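Appendix B. Raw example, untouched.
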Amino acid sequence: MTEDESLMNGQTSYGAVELEERRTDDKNQGKGKGKYEAHFPNLVDPLNLRIYTNNIRFDNKNRDSHEKPWSKRKQLITSSIAFNTRPGNANVVCLQEVLHNQLEDILFNLNHGNEGEWTYYGVGRSDGLTRGEYAPILFKDQEWSVIENRTFWLSETPDVPSRGWDAALERIVTMVTLQSRVNPLIKINFFNTHYDHKGIEARRKSSLLIIDRMTNYNDYPSFLCGDFNTQPTDEPYHILKEHGFKDSRTLADSLNSYGHWSTFTGFDKHHEDNTIIDYIWAPYFAKNGNKPVSHELSVNNANEKFEEQVPGIEGGESKDLSLIEDGLALTEDSDIADINYYNVNLHQQYNIVIKAFGILHSYYDFYMSDHRPVVADYIVERSLW
């Protein structure tokens, strides 16, 4: 008996469940053979997921013009997080440029001074402990339990503190696998990062390294958040998109989008930089419920894409591709080039739909950071079998 079968029988352990295959009979159309389709037989307790990401600006002792000290900015930063992660959602907060003292201040304020429900995972990028900037992931104990967490560096030696390629500084990715306490069948990976601001090659290689790490991490759907120092016209952005990630900003539409169009402002209200460099990337199969499903993949295309994206899979070498081989019809609202087919079987147990996206306000007499917060709301469902 699997862990999830135990769960469905009233026991307490959780794990992977199998996708139900539903055969559709095409005899009436004269095709003589049915096909298998991804099907969600019984979705219970859908999860209202809210992801909030913000580069809060490090506690700079040599401040830029118009930049206020952290002592003045920290309450606005914390209030923005608290207001936008109120009860009713399962909240995950990804922050960048966070020094250890800033992390302590934010947690103290969120928890009202006492040991409260907010916790985090993250390390300082300089030593893997507390020195240097964090890219922490914050969440509430009452909403999530931790399955796994780790950090890697965006470099040629990703498992030790290091600076990569032509980067000016050490850069990290924080990874956490969280299990919902509302519906313990739902397990999601969250990746948080901050690309280098100078290294062109480093940003390109960072996208490729993240793709490799995410592909080989585990079977659960993944969200990737952060400050990518990359605009939508730049190569690192297109590398992520071509490997199947969906930019929440473009996945949403005018019916479910709110706020500003740019994420980076600088600190001068009268001369804003106004660029888009902060993103929330969703899995390849995430969709907009307002848009019609319009793309169906053939078996051959699915196999070809799987072999292309997953190292070690050549010419249909053994891998659990039974659903593809049996004729799994995947429906998608994006072009086939944007889809990564690794672990496609498990992912078809999940239904992920964007409900809202926003680039929030950050100016209250002064800028609380040189970046605006970015928020995305998703409905996450998982089938029972």
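End of appendix B.
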